[in-house]
């Protein structure tokens, strides 16, 4: 089936540094999402992105966060500067459209550890 | 937004028996309810979903029920197999874009 790839699977970084998480969405998909999951808790919506713009973002999407998809390549989540509470697994997802029952396809996540 | 509560968080069943996971939601605008299965180290995968114009849907040993009045929906896995062992997440969508997830159920099917 359709695959969303996330690179890297694990990343360890010192607090205050910048980190970029990369997502290779399903090739013909147009809508992109980031979700954050702290261990033992549910996946929480961060942001969605379409046509080069953020469509909607949650309170978790702090000012230190940004997303982009330069030249239609990777969909990226950048955190600058990182904080200890940013440690979590970040899931990227994509969908073809945004219809009533549009399926989101998820990547396998990037585990970010901020020291 | 939306708040989705999922229970139980841990579920152990014997092979061949059924397993049930229950979710509730708060936003009456939610109209789409997918269920995702996630195995260790893997991505969450959609296994079944139900729209708000339905009360019941069944596919390949999976049954989902939706009670809009009670704002409750549930997943029932019949004749469980060890391969059904995984994390299961319910979700609700109150608008076109955003899925709100429950906290997950770790299902273990014991031989």
Describe this structure in words.
The complex is a heterodimer of chains A (115) and B (111). With 115 residues, chain A is mostly beta strands. Chain A has strands at residues 5-7, 10-13, 19-24, 31-37, 43-50, 53-57, 65-68, 75-79, 88-95, 105-106, 110-114. In chain A, a hairpin with a 2-residue loop joins β5 (43-50) and β6. The model of chain A has no long low-confidence stretch (mean pLDDT 92). In chain B, β6 and β7 form a beta hairpin. Chain B is mainly β and 111 residues long. In chain B, strands 2, 4, 5, 9, 10 and 11 form a six-stranded mixed β-sheet that branches. Chain B has a five-stranded antiparallel β-sheet with strand order 1-3-8-7-6, with no helix packed on it. Chain B has no helices and eleven strands. Chain B starts with a strand and ends with a strand.
Number of beta strands of chain A: 11
* Number of DSSP-assigned strands of chain B: 11
- Average pLDDT for all residues of chain A: 92
Pair of chains with the largest interface and how many residues each contributes: A-B, 28 and 25 residues
Counting H and I runs of at least 4 residues, what is the number of helices of chain B?
Answer: 0
Number of helices of chain A: 0
Looking at how many chains there are and whether they match, the oligomeric state comes to heterodimer
List low-confidence stretches of chain B. none
What is the H/E string of chain B?
A: EEEEEEEEEEE
The residue ranges of chain A in which pLDDT falls below 50 over 5 or more consecutive positions are: none
